[in-house]
Amino acid sequence: MSLRRILTVDNAADMAVLKQISTPVEGGVTDDLRRLMDDMLETMYAAPGIGLAAVQVGEPKQIIVMDLGDREGAEDGDDEGRRNPRYLINPEIVWSSEELASYEEGCLSVPEIYDDVQRPARVKIRYLNYAGEAVEEDASGLFAVCIQHEMDHLKGVLFIDHLSRLKRERAIKKVEKAARAA
Ligand code: K1U
Ligand code: ZN
Fold first, then answer.
1. DSSP labels for 19-33?
2. Would the CB of 148 count as within 6 Å of ligand 1?
3. What's domain 12-181's architecture?
4. Is the CB of 151 within 6 Å of ligand 1?
5. What is the pLDDT of residues 132-182, one digit of tens each?
6. Ligand nearest to the backbone CA of 158
7. Which helix (DSSP H) or strand (DSSP E) does residue 167 occupy?
8. Which listed residue, of 94, 114, 161, 169, carries a Cα 20 to 30 Å from 131's Cα?
């Protein structure tokens, strides 16, 4: 397994990739894809983060990894350090609740920026897992937040795109300034 570089919004070339629409995985879950997912999970743990879309490591494919640890379904995060990795290939949201919930989101591609985003409180999702099996699952709490955030990445949408233009531009400037200082 190896660590991949996470693309960030302060870099114009990275931003162009982050804005791409990810393509569905065709022909099943191969060993090459499993290697990519293993690398993504290791990269996500090292960051650290709770989710990562393949496009964030420069691979615009419909693949997400996630590990909420013990935060499953929780309204706010209180990590107890247990691992519960998830691998989602070609994920689809097949139902969304009308009820909305707000959560202060972050993103490894927009480091050190956090802001409230409102999304459907509950969703039903369908995806292929690491073994290539079809799974249907109900998501609520942080799981619902994270899956919707990661599925936005597959459409080239960042959480800051849900904010006002002023807040989005300020966020990007802040990341650029931090990158120059580093
Ligand atoms: O960049 C990403 O897509 C990952 C992102 C996922 C996410 C976080 C919060 C709300 C929605 C989606 C992150 O993991 S940001 C880092 C983070 O939230 C975190 C890091 C360590 C411990 C706990 C949380
Ligand atoms: Zn993100």
1. TSPPBPP-S---HHH
2. no
3. Alpha-Beta Complex (3.90)
4. no
5. 999 999 999 999 999 999 999 999 999 999 999 999 999 999 999 999 998
6. 2
7. helix 165-181
8. 94
